[in-house]
Design a protein that fits this description.
By secondary structure, this protein is mainly beta. The protein is built from 3 helices and 12 strands; from the N terminus they run αβββββαβαββββββ.
C-alpha cells in the first residue's frame, strides 16, 4: 500500500515551493567554465544533465542574471567539470558572487578551444554549444561533447538541503 500525499499541506506554485522541493533532490555538482572577453568565467551548476548518447550531448541551466551569463551567451565552447567530494571549497568559490574564481587556490589551465580546464576534478569535458533555449529567467544550454577525460579518482560531490555533501555507504 502506498501513502497518499496530504493535499491539505499542498501549496500553489511559486519560486519558494520549487526551491523547497528541489532541496529534497540530491544533485551532482559541476563547474561550467568558458573563456570570456576579459578572461575565464565559471559557475557552479547542479542542473547538469545528459541529453543524448549519439551524438554525445548534455545540458545545463544558467540564470540570465548570473555574472557568467554574458560570456556563456556568446561562447562557442564550454568546459564541464564533475567535482569530487574533496572539492567542496572549489564548488563554494564558483557559487559565490564576486569571488575570484580563477585565483589561488584554484588550479587550472587553458584547454582545447581556449576553454579553462580545472585540475584535480573527477572528470571534465570540452563541449561545443549548439543551442541556448529560453526557460523563464534562465537559459538551458545544450552542448555537444568534443573531448574529455574521466580519469580522476574519488567520489562525487553532491548538493542536498542547501549544502554540499559526499556519498554515504
Amino acid at each position: 500500500m502506498t501513502a497518499t500525499p496530504d493535499l491539505g499541506t499542498s501549496r500553489l506554485a511559486s519560486p519558494d515551493l520549487l526551491r523547497s522541493v528541489f532541496r529534497q533532490h540530491a544533485a551532482g555538482v559541476a563547474v561550467i567554465t568558458a573563456h570570456g572577453e576579459t578572461g575565464p568565467v565559471g559557475f557552479t551548476a547542479t542542473s547538469l544533465s545528459s541529453v543524448s548518447a549519439q551524438p554525445p550531448m548534455l545540458s545545463f541551466g544558467i540564470s540570465t542574471g548570473a555574472s557568467s551569463w554574458p560570456a556563456i551567451s556568446g561562447a562557442d565552447h564550454v568546459g564541464v567539470h564533475i567535482l569530487g567530494e574533496h572539492q567542496e571549497r572549489l564548488a563554494a568559490t564558483f557559487a559565490r558572487s564576486g569571488a575570484d574564481r580563477f585565483g589561488a587556490p584554484t588550479v587550472w589551465h587553458e584547454g582545447p578551444e581556449g576553454v579553462p580546464v580545472l585540475d584535480g576534478v573527477l572528470a571534465w569535458l570540452v563541449c561545443r554549444v549548439v543551442a541556448r533555449v529560453p526557460a523563464g529567467d534562465h537559459r538551458i544550454v545544450i552542448a555537444e561533447v568534443v573531448l574529455g577525460d574521466h580519469a580522476g579518482s574519488g567520489r562525487p560531490l553532491l548538493y542536498h538541503q542547501g549544502r554540499f555533501n559526499g556519498l554515504r555507504d
